[in-house]
Write a structure and sequence with these properties.
The chain is an alpha+beta fold. It contains five helices and 20 strands. The strands form five sheets. Strands 4, 5, 7, 8, 11 and 14 form a six-stranded mixed β-sheet that branches. It has a six-stranded mixed β-sheet with strand order 16-15-18-17-19-20, with no helix packed on it. Strand 9 and strand 10 form a beta hairpin.
């Protein structure tokens, strides 16, 4: 019995660590990198950047600890999960277009290509990042035509997606002493559509580090909300860009969910207590499954799936 309790405790602790140590947020919406090619070739060089635009309400700009505690928005947190009316895509402090003097909105042109910078926080490298040998997933930018800061996280859909790439695709990172990660900068590119009119446009940046075995793809977990103040257009920008590639065939998500929920799992994360299908507890996390808590909810660990309600956790 002691072995079973211990193995469950170790599993739960490991799951908690694996889902809470990763975090990131958008730091700069229009980054100018001085000697970009030089630092990409030699990450030991000093990073030199000039930020010409910031996300909303960046009151603790430059204070990494304060931002990690008060600015970061984790969609898997209890605060986000239990909010009345549903899980919002924006941090409560970013639901209106508030900008402080030292962190202004970026002024851009339609057709302009921008470099957005976000924190790597040790997760960039597969070889020496933390956790080790884990794909850090995808970063995305969504355009919110309504400008509604109360938009739900579930409304960050593919029709709003403007840019997507791997978390590490454009980064400056190196291993430090002890093979610890030193992530200096992570970027992604975004081109403002040439046919965008002037005025303020709202966007949501998202990091999707969770591989979703139940519904497929990668699940958004961390978000930052921001705007661009658009005026004019880049000379020569094409008002009629090439059409997007045809959509990929969509697999029936219910079929995939049913297949995953029918698989063998281990009650409480204990290998000595296997079960299958409807005989298992509803809250699945990989190969482990758990019962609802006293409030009728699954444990609030990221990356799980409720097989009765048919919803991600």
């Amino acid at each position: 019995m002691m072995k079973s309790i211990l193995s469950a405790a170790i599993f739960a602790a490991g799951l908690f660590l694996s889902t809470t140590t990763g975090h990131s947020w958008l730091e700069c919406t229009k980054d100018e990198v001085i000697e970009y090619d030089k630092i990409k070739a030699d990450p030991s060089q000093q990073l030199k950047v000039v930020c010409h635009g910031f996300p909303r309400n960046k009151v603790n700009n430059g204070d990494w600890i304060a931002e990690s505690s008060n600015y970061l928005w984790d969609l898997a947190s209890e605060r986000a999960t239990n909010e009345p009316g549903g899980r919002r895509a924006c941090h409560p402090g970013q639901r209106t277009a508030i900008y402080v003097d030292k962190a202004p909105i970026a002024k851009v042109k339609a057709g302009e290509t921008l470099r957005l910078r976000f924190w790597g926080n040790g997760h960039t490298s597969y070889a020496y990042g933390r956790p080790l040998h884990q794909d850090p997933g995808l970063v995305r930018v969504y355009h919110i035509p309504s400008g509604d800061g109360n938009i739900l996280a579930s409304e960050l859909t593919v029709d709003k997606l403007m840019s997507e790439g791997n978390f590490s695709a454009d980064a400056v990172s190196r291993p430090k002493e002890g093979n610890l990660p030193d992530d200096k900068a992570n970027w992604m590119s975004l081109t403002i559509p040439p046919n965008f009119g002037s005025g303020r446009k709202m966007f949501v940046w998202a990091w999707a580090p969770i591989k979703d075995d139940f519904q497929g793809g990668w699940r958004n977990r961390y978000t930052t909300c921001f705007d661009f103040d658009i005026a004019g257009k880049v000379e020569g920008a094409n008002n009629n860009p090439a059409p997007p590639p045809p959509p990929k065939p969509i697999e029936d998500p219910k079929k995939k969910v049913n297949e995953q929920c029918a698989k063998t799992c281990y009650r409480g994360g204990m290998k000595e207590h296997p079960c299958a299908g409807g005989n298992c507890p509803p809250c699945r996390y990989g190969e482990s499954c758990f019962e609802y808590d006293s409030s009728g909810k699954c444990p609030s660990w990221a990356g799980g799936f409720d097989c009765i309600k048919g919803t991600p956790i």
